[in-house]
From TrEMBL:
Record-given protein name: 3-dehydroquinate synthase
Highest taxon listed in the record's lineage: Bacteria
Transmembrane segments: none
Database matches in HAMAP family: DHQ_synthase (MF_00110)
GO biological process: amino acid biosynthetic process; aromatic amino acid family biosynthetic process; chorismate biosynthetic process
Length: 358
């Protein structure tokens, strides 16, 4: 079993990664959380139908009372209504400060369940039990949130989990589209920090349906290590953490304008990465964008903005991005692969680049 330590100013915690790591959950709870009496598993409809049974059985072995609350799949879970329903369920079922939340699912479940944990009675502990590739990103680092019609993750907190149990076998039931979404964040991690990892991905990953467990282990470990190194330095995004937002300025705008849940997060971020790479080239990055585009297209990604979205609406949406503090949109660009920077780009250039490539 692999274990990666995440160190942030507010908390240090382990990520257990591999086959059968989930079996260690009862002992971990017994040993470290003897004062916790109730566990609330929050999961989504799809994940619960496949994996909840096993997790419930394991959680019960810890000797604690186990409750479950099932939310809708994907972005439909990251709403005020669902957040409120989770809180109401927790109150109605007597959760208190000696209770813990287990978030079983992908990034959407992790984000909403984490935000419930962060705010229930001003904060109770939670553990991330990720079930998607994307969650190598979302389960680590403590960003928890729900969406607002005005923008993605607009209501949230920085709230670290107690631990992450990343059971590799859960990924075996993931649909290819969701794998593709998660792999975009793997690419992002490589581009912002690790040219060798980027080369490894380019050479090794030619078919998302054929990724081996060994390859998963390697890319998840690398991705988490990259994220951990950044979060350690800047937990609350006052500086370098913004680099983890590479591809997200346009990506979040695409997700929002398409209607949450109609476009996967990773697929939108990938389009945002293409755009940010193009802007970076304009600012001097030397990068083989043709090779990149051919590679990602061969993996099934679309590299175009959906036709129904107009450039003016995209720019308006991007102006509400959390990184932007004036009227000029802030992007994460690359100087070289592995060397990101923040740059304010004026609307004229943004529009010109949008028109040139999309
Ligand atoms: N907090 C962070 O730092 C952070 C980082 C990246 C992304 N995010 C957020 O994460 C969300 C996306 O997360 P995600 O891509 O993991 O998706 P998700 O949680 O939306 O899940 C995607 C779909 O896959 C299904 N699914 C999940 N695991 C499965 C499994 N093992 N087998 C079969 N089906 C399964 C779900 O039911 C859902 O239908 C977005 O809301 C994004 O904003 C957060
Ligand atoms: O952890 C971070 O920091 C990230 O930016 C990771 C992103 O992949 C993730 O999508 C995050 O939720 C985006 O955060 P936001 O602050 O732009 O909403
Ligand atoms: Zn993301």
């Amino acid at each position: 079993m692999e274990s990666i330590d995440i160190k942030t100013p507010s908390k240090e915690y382990p990520v257990f990664l591999g086959q059968h790591v989930i079996e260690q959950l009862p002992l971990f709870l017994e040993k470290n959380y003897s004062d916790i009496t109730k566990l609330l598993i929050i999961s989504d409809e799809k994940v619960a139908s496949i994996h909840l049974h096993k997790v419930k059985e394991l959680a019960a072995k810890s000797g604690k009372q186990v409750l479950e609350y099932i939310v809708p799949e994907g972005e439909h879970a990251k709403t005020f209504d669902v957040f409120y329903q989770c809180q109401s369920f927790a109150l109605a079922n007597g959760l208190n400060r000696k209770s813990m939340i287990l978030a079983l699912g992908g990034g959407a479940v992790g984000d909403v369940a984490g935000f419930v944990a962060a705010t229930f009675m001003r904060g109770i502990p939670f553990i991330q039990l990720p079930t998607t590739l994307l969650a190598h990103d979302s389960a680590v680092g403590g960003k928890v949130a729900i969406n607002h019609p005005e923008g993605k993750n607009m209501i949230g907190a920085f709230y670290q989990p107690e631990a992450v149990f990343y059971e590799l076998s859960f990924l075996h039931t993931l649909p290819i589209k969701e794998l593709r979404s998660g792999f975009a964040e793997v690419i992002k991690h490589a581009l912002i920090q690790d040219p060798e990892f980027y080369k490894w991905l380019l050479t090794e990953i030619q078919d998302l349906a054929a990724i081996t467990d060994e390859q998963y282990l390697y890319m998840i470990k690398r991705g988490i290590a990259i994220k951990a190194s950044i979060v350690k330095e800047d937990e609350k995004e006052n500086g370098v953490r913004a680099y983890l937002n590479f591809g997200h300025t346009l990506g979040h705008a695409v997700e929002g304008l398409m209607g949450y849940g109609n476009f996967t997060h990773g697929e939108a971020v990938l389009i945002g990465c293409v755009y940010a790479l193009k802007l970076s080239q304009y600012k001097g990055l030397s990068f083989d964008l043709v090779e990149f585009m051919e590679w990602v297209q061969s993996l099934g990604y679309s590299t175009n903005i959906p036709k129904q979205l107009d450039h003016t609406s995209l720019i308006q949406k991007m102006k509400k991005d959390k990184k932007t503090i004036s009227d000029t949109i802030t992007f994460v660009l690359l100087n070289e692969v592995g060397f990101p920077e923040l740059a304010e780009i004026n609307d004229e250039i943004i529009l010109k680049q949008l028109e040139e490539i999309f």
